[in-house]
Design a protein that fits this description.
The complex is a heterodimer of chains A (329) and B (215). With 329 residues, chain A is mainly α. Helices cover 51% and strands 3% of the residues of chain A. The radius of gyration of chain B is 22 Å and the shape is globular. Classes of the chains: A mainly alpha (329), B mainly alpha (215). Strand 1 of chain A pairs antiparallel with strand 1 of chain B.
């Protein structure tokens, strides 16, 4: 209880003490804040835009789903080349020797081609002879053949058309890919892919890593997020769907993504848009530490004494000659 | 108590951990400090209210959160009453952060860390950080479109720092468990510690010629 070498009684010696009802203040505060929260909740409700399913994605934008699945097979999707913690295909973010993304390896292994395309098709190929043959052809082909088919199919997809929910591309040598993708699209449109990616060999599940990674590889979900002003370049981390406040307390963290060097390709001292996540986390860690250590940082700790806001806060104390006790403090 | 002590004798201070703990509590936090009925006259400033209303908002966050967790994560999507409790939780969190930030700025301009109160300030900053993490896991646990996109977006930041290998924002079960149990317990424990530290030392004196702004 010692502060400045004194007990609390000694610390306040000479200070005029007045009656104070702490319990009453706490109870009134709980009631008052509760009334405000109940009114806000009852009148304004809360945001709850339904989640996007892979089925909805496949129905609303089948070309994007097929394009994404093709990129998974080709190893060119975001998740396929991500690096740690999903695989070792990418370097991940680093700043000089600081590369924490690589330090712990692929702790959540994801094989994009197999997980998002081949395995769901294998499950769907039961009693589907055409699909079974297509899969056999694909798996029996050389890497060069697969690359040739993927390259041709990928080039044809931007001009693809949709008819009755099915994706059609110009005639070409795509190997078994049109059959595989038509079946994957059909499974996805029926809702099967949502279940297959979540269950992943288990019965109980609470882990949505796979379907979220797959949807993140496409552009359908990010397009909806863009419309809802949720993307990073729109200060999205502190936004919510609709007009609701989001995580507004992340304003400073979000702000760094909008400014140099974190929004620049060239950047400064190795920090740029490419490693903005890592750079901003390092910066925010340092700023948070500085906030915690304000009492020991000369300039920061002296600002309150120089800025007379405290004279407003304690205006009864600073009123001249109002309190004789003050002179004895 | 030793075998040679007479019946009813009080153990000596040097031997009884229980007695030593009780005496330490009596010495450092007597009841009239924990629940004071008199305070320095300058405590009448409105800025002191921010700390109390922050705690009040936390009470409502916890109460509404307990109801939501008892009924399960799907309840509030399907039920009007559930939606109301989610709304109560949502707005209580918003109020909690508004009041906490006002409290933080108030304490900054009062240089509330002076006269041996630096640890109280530092724990307050830690509470702010853990509260942000708690709210973040709450947004990830919403099971709606916002939660989906936050998860997809936030994974890159977590992964870049190496945290994603252990703190998988795409794993709803992990985020929900952290949100309803571990992190709220952490916030509550830290807030109790913060309050006890405030009550042990009492509120800081106004800034004047005697102390400057040093801890």
């Amino acid at each position: 209880m010692r502060s400045m070498g004194a007990t609390q009684e000694e610390y306040y010696r000479g200070v005029r003490m007045v009656p104070y009802d702490l319990v009453k203040e706490v109870v009134l505060a709980i009631v008052g804040v509760g009334v405000i929260a109940v009114i806000l909740g009852a009148i304004l409700s809360s945001p709850d835009v339904p989640p996007v399913t892979i089925a909805a994605w496949a129905q609303q934008d089948p070309i994007d789903l097929v394009t994404t699945a093709t990129s998974e097979l080709a190893g060119s999707s975001t998740s396929a080349g991500y690096g740690a913690p999903y695989n070792s295909a990418g370097e991940g973010q680093s700043w000089g020797p600081i590369a924490p993304q690589k330090w712990f390896g692929a702790r959540i292994p994801v094989d994009s081609a197999n997980t998002f395309v081949i395995q769901p098709l294998q499950r769907a190929s039961f009693s589907n002879t055409d699909l079974g043959k297509a899969l056999s052809t694909w798996q029996g082909a050389t890497a060069d053949e697969q690359t040739k088919w993927l390259d041709a199919y990928g080039k044809a997809l931007p001009d693809a058309t949709v008819s009755d929910g099915k994706v059609a591309v110009a005639t070409g040598d795509y190997g078994p890919l049109p059959v595989m993708m038509a079946n994957l699209l059909g499974v996805a449109q029926a809702g099967g892919l949502d279940g297959l990616l979540v269950i992943n060999g288990r019965f109980y599940q609470t882990d949505y890593t796979l379907p979220l990674l797959f949807m993140g590889d496409g552009s359908y979900l990010s397009g909806l997020a863009d419309q809802a002003h949720l993307t990073g370049s729109q200060w999205g981390m502190m936004n919510e769907t609709g007009s609701y406040p989001g995580q507004t307390w992340l304003w400073l963290y979000t702000m760094w993504y909008q400014v140099f060097p974190f929004n620049s390709d060239s950047g400064f001292i190795g920090l740029n848009a490419g490693n903005a996540d890592l750079g901003i986390i390092i910066l925010m860690t340092l700023l948070t530490a500085a906030l915690a250590l304000v009492p020991f940082i000369p300039v920061l700790r002296d600002i309150p004494r120089r800025v007379p806001i405290h004279r407003l806060i304690w205006r009864t104390y600073y009123v001249p000659r109002k309190s004789p006790a003050r002179r004895r403090n | 108590m030793s075998a040679t002590s007479p019946p009813g004798a009080v153990p000596s201070e040097s031997k009884s951990w229980t007695l030593r703990l009780r005496q330490a509590i009596d010495r450092h936090l007597p009841m009239d400090h924990l629940l004071p009925d008199r305070q320095p006259y300058y405590v009448g400033s409105w800025v002191y209210v921010f700390g109390v209303v922050t705690i009040a908002a936390l009470v409502w966050v916890i109460v509404s959160g307990v109801v939501l967790s008892f009924m399960g994560p799907q309840w509030w999507h399907d039920s009007g009453l559930g939606r109301f409790f989610n709304s109560l939780h949502f707005w209580s969190v918003q109020l909690f952060f508004i009041f906490m930030v006002l409290h933080l700025w108030g304490q900054y301009f009062m240089a509330g860390w002076r006269h041996g109160r630096a640890a109280t300030w530092m724990i307050g900053v830690v509470i702010f950080g853990v509260s942000i993490l708690t709210a973040f896991t709450g947004y990830l646990s919403q099971q709606n479109f916002d939660a989906q996109f936050i998860a997809i977006n936030a994974k890159d930041a977590m992964n870049s720092a190496g945290a994603g290998a252990f703190f998988n924002v795409l794993n709803f079960g992990q985020m929900y468990g952290l949100h309803v149990m571990l992190l709220p317990v952490g916030v509550t424990f830290l807030v109790v510690a913060h309050i006890v530290m405030v009550r042990v030392r009492g509120v800081v004196k106004p800034i004047d010629a005697e102390g400057g702004a040093r801890p």
